[in-house]
Fold:
Amino acid sequence: MLKRRVIPCLDIKNGRVVKGVHFANLRDTGDPVEAARAYDTQGADELCLLDITATTEGRDTFVDVVRRVAGQIFTPLTVGGGVRREADVRRLLAAGADKVAVNSAAVANPLLIRQLADRYGSQCIVVAVDVRQLKPLPGETDPLYEVVIHGGTRSTGLDAVSWCEQAASLGAGEILLTSMDKDGTRDGYDLAITREVSRRVPIPVIASGGVGSLEHLRQGLDPKEGAADAALAASIFHFGLYTIAQAKHYLADHGIPVRPHEAPRGVLITG
Amino acid sequence: MPREVILVDSQLGNLDSVEHALIQVGASVIVSSDPDRVATARMVVFPGQGSFGPTTRALVDGAMGAALRMVIERGDPFLGICLGMQLLFEQSDEGGGFDGLKVLPGRVRRFPADMRAGEDPDAARLKIPHMGWSDVQPTGEHFYFAHSYYVETTDPSLVMWWCRYGSVEFPATISRGNVFGCQFHPEKSQWSGLRFLRSFILGGRA
Structure:
């Protein structure tokens, strides 16, 4: 049976983890490689690195971070942030990423999704979709959601659900859905749009934005609430509030099928 | 002494993580795209991502395909990973139909689009690709899968471990003599994946 995934996400700026990761056993709380290794050992099902640097030098640093992290973990690695063209995707895959997320560039040129999927396979192309709820017009009952780009600073006029469906039909392998309204609030995912997208698209959906507790992870993954295939979170894990293992236990106790946490056993012969 | 493994580079995806995982479990890895080198290997790992298509056709029809068949027929340990396992079979439905290496009986099929998460007809449609961690039987261990196509074999005795997705039960690992294959990505399956690779490296078995 396919399990629901828990995915910690690290925001990277100029080669460092933004805000740092606060675990008792980490020497350098801003080092992405140490943080990634800690999450891997804790039993993360996958790891996400997002580049929030704006400069060209920062981008080169990010590729180097991807390379160093990929060399340390044995779980899938999704990377994104600032991916504009095919060459960016090639560079990140060559550095060891398993999946690359495209966001604004796909909105500007939807056929980029098909081009990337044809070249690298759907399984490594994630379309990241940032959404914001529109203020309902008088008489409207179901809220509408719009796609926003450039970190939520620019609206596009695209309907969120239609865009996700289009991305899937163009060959995206997964949707990473972030609610800009919820992001950073610790109020929980926007369950309404997560559920709507999860039910409408035929590909896996990763819920993102707003997690402040383990219960929020459960809500995102519950088939009757967010119905997402995977739950992404950053701060609740970074600040050592909860470990991935605790999240897995909580989810399993509440009826969400997850991969059980397994402590490392003597597997590594070298290194 | 480290076991020498030839890791076949056939332009079917990135090899770094497979190489890295093999090294972690004690292999000495040589990456090669040279059919002559592959043909003389004592142990071969053949990974692949993506789909059957022009690249696999060139491989199957060309010198690399012949080299892989030679290793298998000679009886040296061989492990195909994901597309590398699927290519051992006769044919794939993918892209209108492409031939495999025809070493093992069976064909590669796409998961049906209308599978449901439960018996209830209103239950959510299952997503394709089958992507994420699934348990295999009989061991109950979890491995990471990322695929839209699966092997349907006419010979169930080939199947070592099974995996179920929706209504489809498909081989997670197969073996016959010296030939092994896994549909999952052992290099992405953390400890269970490393254990699987280690068994292959140490024993020439999985």
In short: Chain A has ten helices and eleven strands.
